[in-house]
Write a structure and sequence with these properties.
Layout lengths: L1 H21 L3 E10 L3 H8 L2 H7 L10 E3 L2 E8 L3 E8 L2 E11 L5 E10 L4 H29 L2 H5 L3 E5 L4 E9 L5 H17 L9 E6 L5 E8 L11 E4 L4 E8 L2 H17 L9 E4 L13 E7 L2
Helix pairs in contact: 2-3
């Protein structure tokens, strides 16, 4: 009996040594990852509840707190480089600080430090140690969801942006000024004139027509339209032959009418600014759909190009 009591005593002492010797008064875990997304956009995804709602499931936002797995997140303060939140589980509170700094022109380094005070009670201390070991996988999952969302350009800019090369180099073009935003009818009138002139010069159209509209002032717009053709031809009157380098360009394909197209162009402009590209030429629309033949604007397909270097 005495021997059994000694064994129990030694086991208890061993547990106390483990609990107080190897489990600190504050348990901290940290994770770091690099995400292909600029720091400004990372802040938009983390700085408030609206941002979190973009990359976490809708059911996570049934209450004022954010429900994620077995925890409820309560968002705290945010600065330009840090965001804090508490992870609540029953009576336990895990403090979290997410930091993010620019890693390169295209990447942001994100780190999270999670900590909890373990207290003096050995049983509570051991339970919180186990909890933090499990919480580490929660942080891993949270990180992965954020990275998967942030690295998809469509989630950030509203359109799927890729980079490529300008497809053609030879164009016949013309331009005209309007006291209103030019209509599709007016656009195709100019396109038809270009087609007639290129045919008279035995030049073949090799891709859909292109257009670019620019607001000159509060009351005037200038539209340029162009046809990609298969050979060089002479300038004549309002018709101007242009030869372009097949340089680098941002590309986005959109489906919809003028509002959708304009939003796509704004997205390309924002992407260019965010990633510090310079543009050697104007953006343009490649009119994949013949808009005269398709009155339903929701079916229009337009490929947008924004030359960069």
């Amino acid at each position: 009996m005495k021997r059994l009591a000694l064994i129990v005593l030694f086991v208890f002492i061993g547990l106390l040594v483990f609990v107080y010797g190897f489990i600190p008064s504050t348990i901290t875990i940290s994770k770091t990852a690099s995400v292909k997304c600029i720091d400004k956009n990372v802040l938009l995804l983390l700085g408030n509840k609206q941002g979190w709602s973009k990359w976490l499931p809708k059911e996570s936002f049934a209450s004022d707190l954010i429900q994620y797995k077995d925890y409820q997140f309560k968002l705290g303060g945010a600065t330009y480089t840090t965001v804090t939140f508490d992870a609540l589980s029953d009576a336990d509170v895990i403090f979290n600080e997410i930091g993010f700094v620019k890693d390169s022109v295209t990447k942001t380094k994100i780190s999270v430090i999670s900590s909890i005070a373990t207290g003096m009670n050995p049983f509570t201390r051991f339970r919180k140690w186990q909890m933090m070991k499990n919480y580490e996988s929660v942080v891993d999952g949270l990180f992965q969801q954020l990275i998967n969302f942030a690295e998809d350009k469509k989630n950030i800019y509203g359109v799927d942006i890729t980079d490529g090369r300008i497809p053609d180099s030879l164009f016949i073009s013309t331009r005209k000024t309007f006291d209103h935003h030019p209509t599709e009818t007016e656009t195709y009138q100019l396109i038809d004139q270009l087609a007639a002139y290129s045919n008279s010069q035995n030049a073949k159209q090799v891709n859909p027509p292109m257009m670019h509209v620019e607001r000159l002032d509060s009351a005037h717009f200038e539209m340029m339209v162009a046809l990609p053709i298969d050979k060089a031809i002479e300038n004549s009157g309002i018709f101007s032959f242009k030869q372009m380098v097949k340089g680098n360009t941002l590309i986005a394909e959109v489906r919809g009418g003028r509002s959708t197209i304009d939003n796509g162009l704004k997205a390309l402009e924002q992407f260019k600014s965010d990633y510090q590209f310079t543009s050697p030429a104007i953006s343009f629309e490649l009119m994949i759909t013949d808009r005269r033949a398709e009155p339903d604007t929701s079916k229009w397909i337009t490929r947008l190009y924004f030359p960069i270097f």
